[in-house]
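[job 0417] fold request received: AB hydrolase-1 domain-containing protein
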Amino acid sequence: MDYLPPAKAIPNAFLASAKSWWAVGEKQATISEARLLRRLPFYSPSNTPSPSQPVVATSTRVELDAPKHYINTVSITPTAPASGAVSPTPTVLLHGYGAGLAFYFRNLSALATWAGKKGASVYAIDWLGMSLSARVPFSIRARRDDISGRVHEAESFFVDSLEEWRKKMNLSKMTLVAHSLGAYFSVVYALRYPDRVSRLVLLSPAGVPRGPNFSQPSRELTDEGAGAPVSNGDHKSIESPSKKRVEEIRDHQRDNQRQQSRARRLFMYLWEEGWSPFQVVRATTLWGPMLVGKYSARRFAGLSEEETRDMHDYILNITLAKASSEYCISHLLQPGAHAHMPLVDRIGELKIPITFIYGDNDWMDPEGGVQSVEKLRQAGNGQGKMYLVGNAGHHVYLDNHVATNELIIKELEREYEKVAAARS
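[job 0417] inference complete; emitting structure tokens
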């Protein structure tokens, strides 16, 4: 795949939408991901490292044990071995609900620069059943009234495949950097496999506080950025929020919830009836690309025109691909997005450093982070931290990538120093 045609303009009329709908498919999805990844100077479509780069990024399918089960993986590995006795803990980036690894295209360069200096490896993967990983059947055997059974089965689908991927990659321990529902699964994974996780960095995590809260999962396809368009890096504000500041954000979320548009209320109703936002879009058939285009153009308006088109094409192909693990959501979350088994009631078992990062215009309730840091402290783990990033919404890592990259790298540096101290 040497030449990639540029992404077409975002459709704003039915005929263009229909043409776009017919072009969707697995091949186009691969092309749309590659467009975003090729912005990285160290990305090698041919999997051949460049001697001028300290790292190389390659794309592979990591085959799992079950037939036709595989995990789409981008590996960023050093072109020279680590200097000294320290072998840094690998970092794994995990996306949120219905998204994909290329959502991190604004973060990978900064992480790769750090990794190249330290001789570290960074991986970004698609969850099984999402994005470009295998779209395998997803089903729950537990009865509808068996809440814990349903939650356990849904969680297992993801964390078991992550553990299988880890074994295939021969990784002993990992630092997990994860967004939204991916952050939820990362905590669950750490609870089940505590010896395999050294540190968690949770970006606007889902399912944390007890309900009801003010998160709205329907906004995965109706989010307007909450007044925080994608930043070009000129806003680097990072704060450790006070109780007053958190309450201000929650007040804003309450107001936003009261002012929901008719379309958003419809999404929420269908969600509560067991539909996923992506199923709703598929149901619109030829109108789907135009509907996704309205979201893409609005939500990622701060990107360049070319980046916005590329993101739209990527999101469109993810959204219209064969349905799979997206149906996990109704088994994990109650209507209103609070979890059946909130993480705040489970996270105290973890003994590792955990960092919560929210946008100051986030629609994910930051009270969960506050409660979790306190839960960790009460359990004797003083390594919990929480930050607010300015000029950022739910996609905090994309909205203000400069500040978020700074926080992530700070945590990776702490992990590096911890490993170095243990081996000295």
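[job 0417] notes: The beta strands are 55-63, 70-78, 91-94, 122-125, 174-179, 197-203, 238-239, 354-359, 384-389. Confidence is low (pLDDT under 50) at residues 213-219, 226-235.
[job 0417] exit 0
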